[in-house]
Amino acid sequence: MNSRLTKLSAVILLTVGVIVLLSPLNSQWLNWYLAFNSTLLKLIVDLTRVSLIALLLAGLLSPFESLGWWAGWYGDGIETHIPATIPMNLSAKSSSLPQPSRYIIYLDGISQSSADYPKRVQNFLNTLAAALPSDMVFIQDIMAYSALNRPLTIQRPFARVWRGINHIETWNANSPLDIFVNLRNTFQVAVSTDNRYGPVFNRGTAQVILNSLRQRGYQPGEPITLIGYSGGAQVALGAVTYLKYALDAPIEVISISGVVSGNNGVALIDRLYHLKGDRDLLAQLGAIMFPKRWPIMSWSSWNLAKVEGRVQLISLGPVSHSGPSGPIDPVATLPNGNSHLGQTMDIVMSILT
Amino acid sequence: MLLSSQFLTWNELISQDSFTHLWALVRGALALNASTFERVHTEPHSLLAALTIVFLAGLSQSLSQIVVLFINQVRPLRFVLSLLISALFFVVGYGFWALSIWSILNLTVDGQLQFVSVLRTLGFSYAPLMLGVLVVFPYFGSAIFVLLSIWTLLGVVIGIDAITTVSRWEAFESAAIGWTVVQLLQKTVGQPIATLGQWITNWVAGEDLITNRARLAEELYAGLRFSRGEPAPGQQSPQPVSTDRAEELQRIALVGKAARSQIGGQISGQISGQISGQISGQISSQRKREPTERER
């Protein structure tokens, strides 16, 4: 209770602080604002201002989950998301099955808020799980945007809000509320790319992945493939530095519509397959936003890895970032008649097998 | 006596007029308005306002360094105290810079310039750094900090230009030379003061803070590979495995913190030299780091 009160007080203090400290910037703005005559316009402007301040606060608070985890502020344990029972076919040590040839770990896009994936993603995962050879272990229970491996919907100050959003999303898939989940997780991607916080966040996600590997009976040296969708690709690349150190195993990353900064993990990676649709504006934004990916920065680890052939860019054709025209949609079809999902599956399977 | 007139009584402080008035000055300083820096000297409470601005700027400055405190695993209360102490040191640093600029200007150009005038001007020119809370923002924070620092430097130059007869370039030179002198003094005759400052910082944090960037990065590798971390409650026991590397893997820390307390003190500086074959036999002899106060 005390800890909740402390956290709440800290958030309130930060809010008031931000509002007060930003108030000197208000003078010009206020003159402009007072000139409005329309109440509706004022309401819209007010709502926009409140939203911007909320967004700013969310951004300011975003590094503290992973930083606090490392500092031990939330107790001593890293909470692993352990399934009650590990399916026999997934547990490498549980039977006389041959030694797994590869471990595949899926890291979801920024819409992830709980262990239950959206229908489209779940369909992709099911298709992939069915297509994989029996000697590959597929891990798909990682919360990519939490160093604590904690879903948004439990054990958080705003867990109820996230549960509410999930509930509405289930009821109405077209509701715009998922933007809040997307924004929250986008901030975590930003944390992963940040020179200051990134190492701590990436260390946390690497720990989560290591724990999950261990639960599945991972044997040292066995190759690993991380499949990251959208922001999950950045999280995967961020974790590579620490995974490589911990396991000393071959590590590949398949980035599906990935938004990656190019400054984490690329130097150590064995191979990165970067799948991107021509209509994918978000993945394109990543290439513009992160200077290490600019062609002019020829000495950056991203560009060096490209020259060495460790980064392979694969075009998905006229495919967008997500949704009905995204890379894992089973209905949308390409000019050649193959579905978007079919094409992505073909590429992923050709890489894996 | 001169200084006492600069401070507000409580009643004055809460009176909206004086607060609003000072806030208007802050806005002027933010807008790099030269006339604001002239007006500052006619305001009765402007020195207190200047010191407050510098303290808030100092807090911002320390916010840009919070990751150091987090990686060092400083506890929440000590974390807050560390920020406050860091802000206070920032105010002291500002005092030295003001003294340095005042000395240079007095010796070279304007023999009549009052020290308090430089204090006020320099203090108000720190106003952009009050927005420094934004440096916490992920990814964009570092760029914001650079922008705010340049904005502040422009404020300093315009401020000095406004209160003296020197040109803009001379104002810039006096600020730059003043800053360099402070840095040189800090590294030479000021070393005992710097050491005392470091001692106080460590004392408040409750441990010897690691501040070196490379060593901070190395800290994060602690416990990744070779710790004897016990399974967390509800965690499955590690599977028995045969090879040495497998044994190492089984020891992968479940808890970064617990692992760090086992080998953290030793691991820094050794990462590059650690190879898998060496470690398995060494774990039992790895000494524990001296527990910090909070760990006791």
Describe the overall structure.
Chain B: Residues 260-296 are annotated as: Disordered. Chain B: Residues 261-285 have a biased composition (Low complexity). Chain B: Keywords: Membrane, Transmembrane, Transmembrane helix. The complex is a heterodimer of chains A (353) and B (296). Chain A is of the alpha/beta class and 353 residues long. Chain A has a domain at 101-148 and 188-352: Rossmann fold (3-Layer(aba) Sandwich). Chain A is 47% helix and 9% strand. Chain A has 12 helices and 6 strands. In chain A, helix 5 (119-131) links the parallel strand 1 and strand 2 (136-139). In chain A, helix 7 crosses helix 9 (231-247). Chain B is mainly alpha-helical. Chain B folds into 2 domains: 4-205, no CATH class; 213-285, no CATH class. Chain B has 14 helices and no strands. The longest helix of chain B has 33 residues, at 76-108. The radius of gyration of chain B is 25 Å and the shape is globular. At the A-B interface, helix 1, helix 3, helix 4, helix 7 and helix 8 of A face helix 2, helix 5, helix 12 and helix 13 of B.
| Corresponding CATH superfamily of the domain at 101-148 and 188-352 in chain A | Alpha/Beta hydrolase fold, catalytic domain
Radius of gyration of chain A: 22 Å
Q: Overall pLDDT of chain A, averaged?
A: 83
Structural class of chain A: alpha/beta
Mean of residue pLDDT of chain B? 70
Shape of chain B: globular
Largest interface here, residues on each chain?
A-B, 57 and 55 residues
Largest sheet of chain B: none
Distance between termini of chain A?
Answer: 52 Å
Order of helices and strands of chain A: HHHHEHEHHHEHEEHHEH
User: What is CATH's topology name of the domain at 101-148 and 188-352 in chain A?
Assistant: Rossmann fold
- Alpha-beta content class of chain B: mainly alpha
Indicate the overall shape of chain A: globular
| Helix fraction of chain A by DSSP (H/I, runs of at least 4) | 40-55%
Euclidean distance between termini CA atoms of chain B: 49 Å
Number of discrete helical segments of chain A: 12
